[in-house]
Amino acid sequence: MTERTFSIIKPDATRRNLTGKINAVIEDAGLRIVAQRRVKLTTDQAKTFYAVHAERPFYGELVEQMTAEPVVVQVLEGENAVARYREVMGATNPEQAAEGTIRKQFALSIGENSVHGSDSLENAKIEIEQFFTEDQIVG
Ligand code: RTP
Ligand code: MG
User: Fold this and answer.
1) Confidence (pTM)
2) Most informative mutation of 86, 92, 115, 123 for ligand 1 (most atoms within 8 A of CB)
């Protein structure tokens, strides 16, 4: 089934000028970038986005990292896009990420792991709506 998922190229990656390299991995995997914008997240935006992790010990650090530098927010479209992108990203901890994945190639640590991708179709819809209106997504 053709799906849409939400992606963020995180500050550790934009800081190192890796947006193009990461987009190449995404496109080589057969996913289409159907919306994209560079934005500096506010603390409120980052807190809302990661609200599910509010009680976790790394929450403060996560919000700080996500607001430190600009990010690139994206909508990706393709066959089974949610699961496919999770595969392309690799495990949260880059030490456990498979060869060829974005995190294996580019992530610095479990916290600074270069990309975010939605973990379900339901969350993809919610996350896309936080950053894009339907007319900004051109499939
Ligand atoms: P994401 O939501 O960013 O796509 O990553 P994920 O599903 O693979 O991982 P998740 O468990 O949702 O965690 C969200 C983000 O929090 C940071 N994190 N730091 N220091 C730590 O132990 C730790 N654990 C998670 C990572 O940036 C992770 O991507
Ligand atoms: Mg997650």
Assistant:
1) 0.97
2) 92
Closest CA to 23 of 11, 12, 7: 7
Identify any residues that bridge with 33 across adjacent strands, giving them in sequence order.
76
Residue 70 CB less than 6 A away from ligand 1:
no
**Interval 28-53: pLDDT, tens:** 999 999 999 999 999 999 999 999 99
Query: Using an 8 Å Cβ cutoff, are 39 and 92 in contact?
Result: no
| Structure tokens belonging to residue 5 | 């998922």
Which positions are catalytic? 116
Both structure tokens of 75: 């909508």
Of 77, 84, 69, nearest to 19 (Cα)?
Answer: 69
By 3-state DSSP, what share of the chain in percent is helix, strand and coil, each rounded to 5?
45, 20, 30
